[in-house]
Amino acid sequence: MSYHRAAPALAALITVVVTVVGCERGSSTGPGNPSEGVTRAGCPADLAKARSAVRQAEKVDVSWNGPTTGPAALPGRTIVYVAQTMTNPGVAGVAKGLREAARVIGWKVRVIDGQGTPAGIQAALSEAVGIRPSGIVLGGFDPNATSSQLARADAARIPLIGWHAVGSPGPSRHPKLFTNVTTRVGDVAEISADWIIARSGGRAGVVVFTDASIPFARKKSQLIEKQLATCADVRLLATENIPIPDASSRTPQEVSSLLSRFGSRWTYSVAINDLYFADAAPALREAGREGSGPPFNIGAGDGDPSAFQRITSGQFQAATVPEPLTEQGWQIVDEFNRAFAGEPASGYVAPVHVATAANSGGATSWDPPGYREGYRKIWGR
Question: Which stretch is the leader sequence (predicted)?
Fold first, then answer.
């Protein structure tokens, strides 16, 4: 065969080889460059959108975009924080921020732990109403399960503020809340799913962990599943419903079962709370899985210190969508101050953020800059 006759065939072969190599490199989703390269996934448009959204959410050089005006600090108030369970790191993190802000504004805070059971939460809220405080925080539980206690609080004219109490941020009429402090559940769910789509190059086998007993959590997991479904090559393998109070006892056995059922097809996980991955780690380790390997896990909420530690050390968690827990504790104090002054809620909702080993800098929480100074200026403190 002459050179001139062979050249077109050789050029075609080179083109095929380059194309295949390019696709394989793009499909590789290692920690170094999870959201770059060419992909053969069946959702190119959604993959491009996911990569863009994740890049934006991973930024850490953000400015405070919360309220800049409001009433000056009112003195002598007492706040009771009723916690769904203080074993929930998100609930505990907000309590920490609430106490910090209360010291600055000059208020007292008392925390009552509902122990994670309906009876315990009802008893805790009954105790809180009996104290007759200036305000009560509903920390991470469904207010509809405490209707009689809420009616007593309303009769006593005690303002209520929720944290993750209902599905949306802002004031609520049913149940009656001055405001509900949270990120937008839809934003958290979407960016969590987008991270999986982006990091996997649009090809993943996913397990979702949720707590269907909490309406907020149930809605979040449903929205995650909806967003994952936008990419044809992302497969939802299973949704595991494990109540948060039972996570330490049930998660390890469920993870072992999932490994047996799906094996190497299970490449990603997303949970409505980071704590599931602390409980999953022993079972994954026992099965011989590497801490920095699949399944790659993202927590769709909270971002407690242990989650950041797992992410930094590459131990069975790759990312989290952290709530700015301390900031939200400060926001709750500011919202109560507005309620006491007869002013409306601020309407502020913190934007979503994705924390990874690459952008967290060894931190143990997402603590965005500027809010302490902003609230101090408003309060005159």
Answer: none
- Nearest Cα to Cα of residue 237 among 257, 217, 216, 223: 257
Give the SS3 label for residue 170.
Answer: strand
Distance between CA atoms of 307 and 94, rounded to whole angstroms? 16
Q: Considering the chain, tell me which residue range(s) the CATH 3.40.50.2300 domain(s) occupy.
A: 41-61+186-320, 78-183+324-350
Instruction: Kindly report, residue by residue over 111-131, the tens digit of the pLDDT.
Output: 999 999 999 999 999 999 999
State the pTM of this model.
Answer: 0.79
Q: Percent of the chain having pLDDT more than 90?
A: 81
Q: What is the assigned CATH class of domain 41-61+186-320?
A: alpha beta
**According to the model, what pLDDT value does residue 40 have?**
55
- Burial class, 282, CB count within 10 angstroms (exposed 0-12 / middle 13-18 / buried 19+): middle
**279 Cβ contact partners less than 8 Å away, ≥ 6 residues apart:** 247, 248, 251, 252
* Closest CA relative to residue 282, chosen from 322, 312, 254: 254
| Sequential DSSP letters for 104-136 | HHT-EEEEEE-TTSHHHHHHHHHHHHHH--SEE
Average pLDDT over the chain, rounded to whole?
89
Question: Per-residue pLDDT for 66 more than 70?
Answer: yes
Locus of tokens 């109070």: 245
Which CATH class for the 78-183+324-350 domain?
alpha beta
Determine what percent of the chain is predicted with pLDDT higher than 70.
89
- Nearest to 342, CA basis, from 43, 107, 140, 74: 74
